[in-house]
Specification:
The chain is an alpha/beta fold. Helices cover about 45% and strands about 15% of the residues. α3 runs parallel beside α6.
Length: about 180
């Protein structure tokens, strides 16, 4: 009988230990992913205020009707700096075909303007704070990666987007297809 009580006690202890391990080993439910920020409509996007290097307000509205290559970048971002000379060449090539590049930086305006002069950037470089990062996310950059490039159609709708470097040759071909469609 003693043996039966001892075995039963051991089984009961093992059962309780198993239950305890089961509940202790369960990870708490993971937090649900952050909801995607609300998408931005073309009209709101075209009217969104930015600032140029001198602090003057700017918007995409004057570029309505063009294909806009909107590049989110920063002076401290090595891949951003790597792709910008290609953007300068493509801006020169495609400007007469209705393409406009615009750089948006969450960065110090003085650094942005100095960098633009140093590199000979031939397109507008605008700055902003967290609103630039928020806009990038609302345009599909959920990870906040730089560089991030969005191609907007003539009405402000998103036609393409790219996280990371946008190869100059590939972007050149893409712009050729887009400007042929809008002609």
């Amino acid at each position: 009988m003693r043996r039966l009580v001892a075995v039963t006690g051991l089984l009961l202890a093992a059962l309780l230990a198993g239950i305890a391990f089961h509940f202790a080993g369960r990870a708490s439910a993971p937090a649900p992913p952050a909801p995607a920020p609300p998408a931005i409509t073309p009209g709101v996007l075209m009217a969104t205020p930015f600032a140029d290097g001198q602090g003057k307000p700017q918007s995409l509205a004057p570029y309505a009707g063009k294909v806009i290559v909107l590049n989110f970048w920063a002076t401290w971002c090595a891949p951003c700096r790597e792709e910008m000379p290609g953007f300068v060449r493509l801006q020169a090539r495609w400007q007469k075909s209705g393409v406009q590049f615009i750089g948006l930086a969450h960065d110090d305006p003085a650094k942005v303007m100095a960098f633009g002069r140093e590199l000979g950037v031939n397109y507008p470089l605008w700055v902003g704070g967290s609103d630039i990062s928020d806009l990038s996310r609302r345009l599909g950059n959920r990870l906040g990666v730089l560089p991030y490039t969005v191609i907007l159609g003539p009405t402000g709708d998103v036609l393409d987007q790219r996280m990371g470097l946008f190869d100059e040759h590939e972007l050149d071909q893409r712009l050729g297809k887009l400007t042929a469609k809008s002609s």
